[in-house]
Amino acid sequence: SRLQQRLDSGATTLPMDAAGSLLPALLRELGVPVASQVLVFSKTSFQRERIGPANPRALYFNDSVYVGHVPGSPILEFTAVDPVLGAVFYTLDESSPQRPAFVRTDQCTECHASARTMGVPGHLVRSFETDESGVVDLLTAVDPVNHRTPMSDRWGGWYVTGRHGAQTHRGNLMGKEAFALQKTRPNHAGNVTNLSRWIESSKYPVPTSDIVALMVLEHQQHGQNFITRLAYEARLQLSAYGHVNYLRPQIDAFVRYVLFADEPPLTAPIEGSPEFRKAFESAGPRDKKGRSLRQLDLAHRLFIHPCSFLLQGEPFAALPGPLRLKILARIDSAIASSEPSGIASHISPAERSTLREILRETVPGYPAIHRSEEHTSELQSRVDISYAVFCLKKK
Questions:
Q1: pLDDT in tens, 237-266
Q2: Global pTM?
Q3: Which of 127, 187, 248, 381 stands 20 to 30 A from 103 (CA)?
């Protein structure tokens, strides 16, 4: 909306590139890195007739905007992540480059506001087996895909570039023969850095469909849906009861998600685009020691510090105050807990200490005083003694 205002006033203009597209200029204006490009060839868009293995749809993203482009189509697709509404969808017709206009559409919500998006306007990543033309086999669907999905189930219908060792995935496979060959020759279409065997990569700004960008996208889009759903429910609860106490199960589920409690470990290092990694890691706030929730691990798990960067974004900051504070307090108590079966049991004591420091300095509203185990034990002892004294007096 802000970009449209600048275009209408003449403060901003969008030059076309050599191919006659506004895409590069739009990505620059919206702050979306070109290196975030991922390519999907399954026919799962309202432009499905233009999409296939030889002409995949390109997706680009940052924390708040998603952009879709199909070579040969005059229609560009956009989603803005609104802190109140969730995903808001737009198109832009490139056939009128002198007066570019974002047009809001609800056509996308036929798929993007369903049980797969947690019942709110949102995004989803799905994985299907496809035939040679990109038509999906619905019986093979894995959805929604996020950081909890085993890699072997991911990226059916997507191109994937990057190194991932012996770990297998469904990317770069189309047709029954390719999937059958995968069983006897795992990764016969994996660990590739060049898509020239399948597409004319010159039609795209970069020749990659980056594996790391895909992994970040999968975590981000479902986490954003989660935040939107919590926001909707909190507003209803506050209106009906004046509090959000009944959202405890949902808060616990969200905390599990943002602390990566159910993330399967990587069994081999992941190597993707250096350009995407640089753009992604440089975008977020850092603490005084230079640490960030956006630092990628890629050897054992997705992130070095197992806590989501989504806690630093505008949608989370815009959650109703009572809910946001309860979530932050629950994260704090989970990190402080020493229970072997707790939400944060997968995080080492040293990592917990680091997380507390990063969260305190980079997430507004995070509890400023963190209770050590000794302090918590001391407080519990005081409570026990006070209760015993109370019982004696009552006798």
A1: 999 999 999 999 999 999 999 999 999 999
A2: 0.91
A3: 127
